[in-house]
Every structure is written in structure tokens, then in C-alpha cells.
Write a structure and sequence with these properties.
Elements (H helix, E strand, L loop, with lengths): L4 E5 L6 H11 L3 E3 L2 E3 L13 E3 L2 H9 L3 E7 L2 E6 H9 L3 E5 L2 H10 L3 E7 L3 H11 L4 H16 L6 E4 L3 H16 L2 H7 L4 H6 L4
Parallel strand pairs: 1-7, 1-8, 2-7, 3-4, 8-9
Antiparallel strand pairs: 3-6, 5-6
Helix pairs in contact: 1-7, 5-6
The protein binds adenosine-5'-diphosphate and guanosine-5'-monophosphate.
């Protein structure tokens, strides 16, 4: 049984990492695809958990070797999704969450892979700035660059299958979880992989 690929994008600071951490805790058989990046680790980030932090040279060599399902330069650093890791998880029947930017999402769409695309937005650009500053992990210059990019990224939201507004956190988490669970219950996917046969249910006790 194959898992489903969920591509999740949002302007930086919208709360995507916060939401995805909750989803990973709360829904079984969902995994996070840990990307490779040339960005430096932030305080509290761990190699192999948040990202694989690699040099520009290592990243370029992996990219040339076809190691990435998609790769893009975002806010001045390179990021890429490991093709092998994603295929291995999907093959085990695990649903995989990709936290990637709009350029990467469009590459996944163009690749022909089946995926569900979710876009997360903040309630306003003012609130986005407040969250970026409140997070306290980025310099003024980095925050300015991320806010400028946010306007561009928001314009791509209509190309996604689902839009989730992250105003009240619990509601946004529930909405993303609902998309994943709805996908799991889709008739063909659910029925083909389920040990339950409808004719047995219909002929069983209570018939
Ligand atoms: P992203 O991964 O999208 O860049 P983060 O998950 O790091 O964003 O969230 C940015 C900041 O906003 C963090 O400090 C986080 O605690 C805060 N945050 C996330 N969601 C909400 C929310 N619904 N309401 C208020 N603050 C939030
Ligand atoms: P951050 O530096 O804040 O962790 O991430 C910056 C942006 O890079 C976010 O929009 C995030 O979704 C995106 N990103 C993280 N990993 C990948 C990846 O593997 N590929 C692409 N295309 N974008 C990524």
C-alpha cells in the first residue's frame, strides 16, 4: 500500500512548522520529509531532525546526481527534498509531509507524482511580521526579505488544492488533519487497501 504525498507551503512565519509538528504528534503513520539545505542552523535546530545542513558544494553534487525530487533557492539559500527517502516512506504506506516553498511545489506538480497541495496563510501581513519578529530567530534584514517574498508567495495560493488560514492555531491544525484524514478515507484508496469487503458487511450480522 502506498502512502500519499502532502505538499505544504506557506510564507515564512505563517506557522507552518508549528502546525506540522502538531499534525505529526497527533496523526499516526505520517512522517516528515527532512530536507537538505545550505542555510545555517538556527538556535535549537538539529541536523537530521529539522534539516540536513550541508555545504553549497555537497548540495550541488547531490543535485547533479539526481538525489532531489525537487530543489529550489529560497530567501538566498538552497533547499531540496530527498527522492530516496520520500519513495521509501511512501512505499511503506506512510503519508509524507513536504514542507517546501512554492517553486518546489510546482516542480512536484510538474513531476506527475500524485500529491495533495495545501497552502497555509496568516490572517494578515501585519500578523505575519509580528510572528516573524516574535520568533526571534532572524535578523532584521532576513525578516525584510521574507516579508517581501511573502507577497509573491501568497499570489500562488490559488494553485493549491486546499487553503488553511492559521489564525487560531488549534483550528488550523484540525483543518490540515481533516485534509489528511479525508484523503485516507477516499473510496478507492480505502476500499482497495482495506480488509473489510462491503459484501461481507452487507451479508454479515444485522443483514
Ligand atoms: P513557519 O514554519 O511558517 O516559518 P513557525 O511555525 O516558525 O512558522 O511560526 C512562526 C511564529 O509564529 C512562531 O513563533 C510560532 O510560535 C508563532 N505562531 C504559529 N502559529 C501561530 C498562531 N496561530 N497564532 C499565533 N502565533 C503563532
Ligand atoms: P526556513 O529557512 O524558514 O526553514 O524555510 C524557508 C523556506 O524554505 C520555507 O518556505 C520552506 O517551506 C522552504 N523549504 C524547506 N525545505 C525545502 C525543500 O526541500 N525544498 C523547497 N523547495 N523548499 C523548502
Amino acid at each position: 500500500m502506498n502512502g500519499t504525498l502532502f505538499v505544504v507551503s506557506a510564507p515564512s512565519g505563517a506557522g507552518k512548522s508549528t502546525i506540522l509538528h502538531r499534525v505529526l504528534e497527533e496523526i499516526p503513520a505520517v512522517a516528515f520529509s527532512v530536507s537538505h539545505t545550505t542555510r545555517s542552523p538556527r538556535a535549537g535546530e538539529a541536523h537530521g531532525r529539522d534539516y540536513f545542513f550541508v555545504s553549497q558544494q555537497e548540495f550541488a553534487a547531490m543535485r547533479r546526481g539526481g538525489a532531489f525530487l525537487e530543489a529550489a533557492e529560497v530567501h538566498g539559500n538552497w533547499y531540496g527534498t530527498s527522492r530516496g527517502a520520500v519513495e521509501e516512506m511512501l512505499g511503506r504506506g506512510v503519508d509524507v509531509l513536504l514542507d517546501i516553498d512554492v517553486q518546489g511545489a510546482l516542480q512536484v506538480r510538474a513531476s506527475g507524482l500524485t500529491a495533495v497541495f495545501i497552502f497555509i496563510v496568516p490572517p494578515s501581513l501585519t500578523e505575519l511580521e509580528r510572528r516573524l519578529r516574535g520568533r526571534g530567530t532572524d535578523s532584521d534584514e532576513v525578516i525584510r526579505r521574507r516579508l517581501a517574498n511573502a507577497r509573491q508567495e501568497l499570489l500562488a495560493a490559488s494553485r493549491y488544492d486546499h487553503l488553511v488560514v492559521n489564525d487560531e492555531l488549534n483550528q488550523a491544525v484540525r483543518m490540515v488533519e481533516a485534509v489528511i484524514l479525508a484523503r485516507r478515507s477516499q473510496f478507492r484508496r480505502n476500499y482497495d487497501n482495506s480488509p473489510v469487503r462491503l459484501d461481507e458487511v452487507l451479508d454479515g450480522p444485522g443483514a
